[in-house]
Amino acid sequence: MQTGFEYAILSVRHIKAHGKTKFAYSWKLISTDKIPARKRHCIALGDKIKQIQKDHIKIRGSCLMYIQKYLNALAAYCPDLENRFACGAGKEQIQEFEGLAGAAFPAEYYELYQAVNGENQYMASFLGFELLSIQAAQEEYRILLDCPYQVLSAEEGRIKEGEYRRGWIPIAHDGGGSFILMDLEPGKNGKYGQVITLDREDDISYVLGDSLELVFK
């Protein structure tokens, strides 16, 4: 690839938080490269890439500003945070998971996963558990449907008791058989979309929050 005065248009493929593929262009690879004659000033491609990496984890949904605050707090301890999350999933990927589960996912689930699609590097970002990608969540979901869990609700009527439910959507795990789930099949006293636990060593499940938003809040 040519750079500087031996120039060529440089391009890099990237995926923004809403899941659409776009291209970034620059006449310069690095900031010290020269711009060809009669071409406008432009930002170096390397600098554009850094900005893209930061932008792709910004929450654009109105109801999940708390998640953005949480990510900002993580960034204070993890300067390379933007490299540790995968680029957001496309709407079609989430809809595929909805079809598998046979239930509509709350808007906040879309907003979270269109911003970040799991962790690139393990960092236990979700309440001490690893945030799953859409692809990994679907794989775990298929396995869990056949697992012999016998769940008891810590609070009467909040969580349906018994076997694993089709409306329980894995969000995060510890890598050893315990999960944080979004509950789309709650008990009579529960809330649609509430966030619950599934423990490999304890039959009792707990409600962590009435929604994803409230968990982050």
Structure description:
By secondary structure, the protein is an alpha+beta fold. It has two domains: 10-55, Double Stranded RNA Binding Domain (2-Layer Sandwich), CATH 3.30.160.60; 65-216, 3-Layer(aba) Sandwich (SMI1/KNR4-like). Helices cover 29% and strands 20% of the residues. It is built from seven helices and eleven strands. It has helices spanning 45-55, 65-77, 81-84, 91-101, 107-113, 134-144, 212-216, and strands at residues 10-15, 21-26, 85-87, 116-119, 130-131, 152-153, 168-173, 179-183, 194-198, 204-205, 207-209. The strands form four sheets. Strands 5-7-8-9-11 form a five-stranded antiparallel sheet. The protein has a two-stranded antiparallel sheet with strand order 1-2. The radius of gyration is 21 Å and the shape is elongated. The relative contact order is 0.12.
Would you kindly provide a brief summary of this structure?
The protein is 29% helix and 20% strand. It has 217 residues and is of the alpha+beta class.
